[in-house]
């Protein structure tokens, strides 16, 4: 049995980090010294009031009300729970309105809100290269501490890229329909390591070899890397065209950067993706949208500042386990994004 009492903010951040890393509930509970049920309750309802488990005697739907919900969901499977509750209560002026808790509880047996799975397509050759990469770097903990992990991400005014969630009946799967984005976006580049946060830089919307190299030079990130890793460091980047261009490779050779040979189609092996995921959850919580690019950029900077070096380090400590999973799964995806 783990400790009792409400979770602290530090514990909540740690649990999110371990979950993003792919740990099982039982492993998270052991690390947090909390019961498995306490961890599960928090992950299921992170904003719920501590200790509140809802009205266990909430009344059941009548047949017509349940039919109404299913019909609404068939027409709009991405409807939020609040909107569904309002629709169920439409025309109930002479009767007591039902609460969101009642709607949620009545739907729980037959429906769940899930996101379509997003995975990189992996050919047999891709999987073999991923296994070879994992085997080459497996258990080299001291070398792992020297790696500077990097990645770019686009942030949209109206929400994160990816597949939106939808209500589906038990046993069914969400449609693979990508949400529409519009209204503008900004691109950022991030670097992290075992020392914590290294850099977050705004980039042009379209990254070319020329502006990529210019960003690395003008920001003097190599100086930051050298100061935090005086014993030496290895630069990690994916295989985007700008990264693999001849001009970029010439820059690395000229400056003496040691660049990791990263396998194609492997964002699931990059811990930076987990940091992006944490930032997106905080930025777009409650389906928040932004009115202007300046507002969006300010929020990105603020959320980045709120992430602690301890959170980043907790993600990096699990990288060896991630490589193990890649080998055990014969190069298949180890995490969805």
Automatic annotation (TrEMBL):
Residues 147-296 form the Tc1-like transposase DDE domain. One of its GO terms (molecular function) is DNA binding. Residues 3-46 form the Tc3 transposase DNA binding domain. InterPro entries: RNaseH_sf (IPR036397), Tc1-like_DDE_dom (IPR038717), Tc3_transposase_DNA-bd_dom (IPR025898), Transpos_IS630-like (IPR047655), Transposase_5 (IPR052338). NCBIfam families: transpos_IS630. PANTHER family: TRANSPOSABLE ELEMENT TC3 TRANSPOSASE, TRANSPOSABLE ELEMENT-RELATED. This is Transposable element Tc3 transposase.
